[in-house]
Amino acid sequence: MADYVIPAPPQASVPVKGGGAFPVRRIFCVGRNYAEHAREMGHDPDREAPFYFCKPADALLTGGADMPYPPGTKDMHHEMELVVAIGTGGANITEADAMKHIWGYCVGLDMTRRDVQGEAKKLGRPWDMGKGFDFSAPMGEMVPAGNFDPSKGKIELKVNGKVRQTSDLSKLIWNIPEVIANLSALVTLAPGDLIMTGTPEGVAAVVKGDLLEGMVEGVGSVVTKIV
């Protein structure tokens, strides 16, 4: 074991329904993976190659904990997503084999400093501070893959009890096997990697005091309050 010169950071993880925890290595996020969301962001939803950005593993917020409103923004948005957890790694995974690499699923929120992201886009700069800030990845409990079919199912987010986002997983531009195959051709996936698969239309700002309640049919829910 290495003789670390400072205390090693704790292992980021997502609680597993029924007990235990899924250790998280990296968080990959698929951009603009629902056509209507692409349109509302001012982009053509044609099926061009998927693109990705990352959040640090320690951006996770679990257990229904409150989310502090982050500094540096006046326009934080919610983005409701299905999250895929990789249990068996690999490079150049085929679409036919992709589902074998999934350990389970959870429900997550890609919280976004939209004004910061927008300025970065305008200047051709990275999105990191718009997407990868502290507590920017609230997630619910992980469930084993089992017989869940990620090709369909309701995905929805309520803010203060009112529906803000609602769609179906069947509307993903790039489905789960396609995303895994594409991403694994760019990086070698490893056990513990999470893939946030994209958000449907209806993204909007939240403020302190807002209660966010998201769900994916057959997977579970995520809840957090902005404080």
UniProtKB/TrEMBL annotation:
Q: Kindly give the Gene3D superfamilies that the UniProt entry links to this protein.
A: Fumarylacetoacetase-like, C-terminal domain
What name does the UniProt record give this protein? Answer: Fumarylpyruvate hydrolase
Q: Which controlled-vocabulary keywords does the entry list?
A: Hydrolase, Metal-binding, Pyruvate
Origin species, per record, is: Humitalea rosea
**Family annotation (SUPFAM superfamilies):** FAH (SSF56529)
Molecular-function annotations in GO: acetylpyruvate hydrolase activity; metal ion binding
Q: Please list the residue ranges annotated as the Fumarylacetoacetase-like C-terminal domain.
A: 27-226
Read off the InterPro entries from this record. Fumarylacetoacetase-like_C (IPR011234), Fumarylacetoacetase_C_sf (IPR036663)
